[in-house]
Design goal:
- This protein is α+β, with helices and mostly antiparallel strands.
- It is 30% helix and 27% strand.
- It is built from nine helices and 16 strands.
- A seven-stranded mixed sheet has the order 3-5-7-11-10-9-8.
- Helix 1 crosses helix 3 (34-46) and helix 4 (70-76) runs parallel beside helix 8 (236-257).
- The longest helix has 22 residues, at 236-257.
- The N and C termini lie far apart (47 Å).
- The structure holds adenosine-5'-triphosphate and biotin.
- Residues 89-91, 112, 115-118, 123, 132-134, 175-176, 186-188, 204-206 line the site of biotin (BTN).
Length: 321
């Protein structure tokens, strides 16, 4: 996989200085023809990179691009970190390696060819502009504890963003991060392991940072962290390091004390607290006002029949104005 993409990655590194590079110069650097360069540029467009060509000058990136810095990542994160620039899915990569992984192992990518969300939905993952990463964790308490874990990870992510100065970022039960009622990031917890035994979990997050404007395949309102920071430059490497650290310490706390220390923290950050929502559960729709989460991580609604708690992976929450 890595070798196959090395020409494209080389071209990107050259273009990331922001200047024009002629097809001929790029071809000379790589020892390939101008036609082969043109083909790679087309492939980069398919990865979601916006590159244009001006006759007589060559190729240029439409937006500046700062690639993730593997050296800084591995030196600063207090866990095993791998950067695989082009991958199918960082969750899939770690799921295939659970038996040989230590807790806390992380995989990051610049581009996912098959990034996924819940229930097989696609996670749009253009190259070099957002964050896509996953962490392996083992829960000796077994699968039952996995529900709480997706909440804990969301809390840790928003608190990390707050520490870095991003304000107004919120949570949507059970696994999304929102800003101004739009989806900023999604969390996906997947597991392998039999009931009753320790659960092998892979927790993945896709966080939009500078997503290009046109995204026809996203069918709901979405946003990017550069909207939160008012266009101020964001150091993706530094952000990844902070998120990884916060995740690890939140997971350690969760293992020791369960959800108890997290309920208040969730409720402070809940985007829908006190608001009318509907829950979609297969064919059923339930309307109510969000009251927060309970000690098990279920969402509590005030419905026509009083306070009711809902929990389970098949539930989707939607706002209801
Ligand atoms: P729920 O789990 O409540 O049904 P959801 O509709 O957000 O939430 P998920 O499966 O969690 O569904 O997330 C996948 C959905 O997220 C996709 O169907 C798409 O609409 C949207 N999506 C895909 N890529 C992105 C992205 N990069 N940024 C924001 N939203 C995205
Ligand atoms: C969702 O909202 O449905 C969750 C989206 C999770 C996307 C991340 S990106 C890194 C990791 N690898 C994947 O294929 N999915 C998760």
């Amino acid at each position: 996989m890595r070798k196959e993409h090395s020409a494209k990655l080389h071209i990107l590194r050259s273009l990331s200085d922001g200047a024009f590079h002629s097809g001929e110069a790029l071809g000379n650097e790589l020892g390939i023809s101008r036609a082969a360069i043109a083909k790679h540029i087309k492939g980069l467009n398919d990865w979601g990179v916006d590159i244009y060509r001006i006759q007589g000058r060559g190729y240029q990136l439409a937006q500046p691009m700062q690639l993730l810095d593997e050296e800084r990542l591995t030196a600063s994160a207090n866990t095993q970190v791998e950067l695989i620039s082009v991958i199918n899915s960082t969750n899939q990569y770690l799921l295939e390696r659970v038996s040989e992984s230590d807790k806390g192992r992380v995989c990051l990518a610049e581009y996912q060819a098959q990034g996924r969300g819940r229930r097989g939905r696609q996670w749009v993952s253009p190259f070099g502009t957002n964050l896509y990463f996953s962490m392996y964790w083992r829960l000796d308490a077994g699968m039952a504890a996995a529900m709480g874990l997706s909440l804990v990870i969301g809390i840790a992510a928003v608190e990390a963003l707050e520490k870095m100065g991003f304000e107004g970022v919120k949570l949507k039960w059970p696994n999304d991060i929102y800003y101004q009622d739009k989806k900023l990031a999604g969390i996906l917890v997947e597991m392998s392991g039999q009931a009753g035994a320790a659960a092998h979990l892979v927790i993945g997050m896709g966080l939009n940072i500078g997503m290009p404007d046109q995204q026809p395949s996203i069918d709901q309102p979405w946003t990017s962290l550069n909207q939160v920071s008012n266009g101020q430059a964001i150091d993706r490497t530094q952000l990844a390091i902070h998120l990884i650290e916060h995740w690890k310490s939140a997971l350690e706390e969760y293992e020791m004390t369960g959800l108890s220390g997290f309920v208040e923290r969730w409720n402070r950050l809940d985007n829908f607290l006190g608001r009318s929502v509907k829950l979609l559960m297969g064919p059923r729709e339930i309307y109510g006002v969000v009251k927060g989460i309970d000690q098990q991580g279920g969402v509590v609604l005030e419905t026509e029949s009083g306070l009711e708690t809902f929990i389970g992976g098949e539930i989707s929450l939607r706002k209801h104005d």
